[in-house]
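Q: Could you fold this chain for me?
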Amino acid sequence: MPRMLTMMPTISHQHRLPLVGAAIFALVLPLFLILFNTSYITNSEWFYDYAWWRNDIANRTGLPVEELNSGADQIKDYFGDDAEFLDLRVNYGGSEISLYKEREILHMVDVKALMQAVFVITRWSGVFLLFMFTVGLLALKEKIFLLLIRSLKWSALGTGAFLVIFGGTAAIDFGWLFTQFHFLSFANDLWLLDPYNDYLIIMFPQQFFFEATLFIGLLTVIDFVLLTAVVRYARRRFS
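A: Sure. Below is the predicted structure, expressed as structure tokens.
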């Protein structure tokens, strides 16, 4: 009898450990997907083309689409290089000029730090998820797929609730949400720019970020659907 009692915690621990791993996987997965999609939208070309057209940015700035795309490319390069300051140069009225003023340039230093943090977290959360899946596959073999389905269900429900609340708030008052994001993300007020004179905010108005947020949410939902389909197929294939 004492021997059986000493074995019971071990058995319970063995059953509990995969569930703990599944719960951790369910928590990390939406973080990875949302940040991955944020990185994708930030570095895309099609979204910028859409946003220039959707928000009439060429007319607002007086810059042709080619120069807007050149500016977006310079910003994307800036997020990935070692330069401290962004000198965004465009052809304006037949002359090459630096488009952004000092306050805009200083704000972009903060934006770069934020985006680089997004890139790093995306990379390492992806590595962590891959590591957890590999360990689970080695330990549980084909049983990992049943556990993954459960983990995806938890993750999808939590993410869905978040997206509904976040999306509802954005639809009601995205301006408030956008302001709170800036208060939380930056330690200064350099983001308070003049929408009539500062080209950074003329190129990238609030509507630009609202639409980017919608695409990120949509892509995250699509990711969950595709992942669930792949895992269910893999379970049937290898069970």
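A (continued): The mean pLDDT is 91.
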